[in-house]
Specification:
N-(1-d-carboxylethyl)-l-norvaline Dehydrogenase, domain 2, Rossmann fold, 13 helices, eight-stranded mixed beta sheet, alpha/beta, 40% helix, 12 strands, four-stranded mixed beta sheet
Length: 298
Amino acid sequence: MGVSVAVVGPGAIGGTVAAWIAHSPLVDSLTLCARTPLDRLVVETPDGAIVEAQPRVVTDPSQVTEPVDWVLVATKAYDVDGAARWLKPLVGPDTRVAVLQNGVEHVERFAPFVDPARIVPAVVDVPAERSAPGRIAHRRNGTIVTPVGPDGDAFAVLFADSPIEASTTDDFLTVAWTKLSLNCAGAANALTGEPGGVVRADGMSDLMREMVRECVAVGRAVGAKLGDEIPDWVIERAMTSPADSVNSLLADRLAGRPMEWDARNGVIVRLGQRHGVPTPVNAMAVTLLSAVGWSVRS
């Protein structure tokens, strides 16, 4: 008998993984849990080919008729409550919940809603952009990493027939904090409203490097094995990326959507305070990003 999968949040990441999973010979049932209806998934692959899928689409938890084997949560990190609405009808006695979100608090976010032992945290590096509901450009094959173990192995098998490299690690903490080190520097783009090339502006690389240094210090305080080379590695990646590249934090700001500043920078500040590690640059970024749209909300 095949595996049943539900993807909560078919945006750029959720839609991309859903389109590939739909073609897995192991999956015989795929459901998209979306806010708005969509007719199908159309994904342009990195080599220019088109992958299409027409899974079942539901827009309200009441439309879910039975639990599934896997729930893949791919909403923004700030939309935990919205994602959690789907868990009650989707989660059965043997359901596993993979959390494909930014940050390092995958399990903590969903522990109030599902047994933590069933949660499979995932670090996702799958560059993709959504142009319209169900229409996505998958820019680079990318990777997904989960903790080593039976659940991580079972999750990776779902992607065996896709170009996305799914693997497991025995040091998920370090993998997650390494990704956070990369993501936290993206606050500079959201703050300036400028794409990737802004790293070349006077003083910008130094500012971004300091954000990463703070992240590394906090990560080490919680047990991650992070090397001294990481800040320079992050800046090198930024310098060699396309000047017009737009990260998700900036994309959300430009579109007037809420931003994941808490998952990408706020967590560094909060855990820094808990462990006595100063994080003034990330704290400044959090203060400024949290104030974006203040006059509209007031």
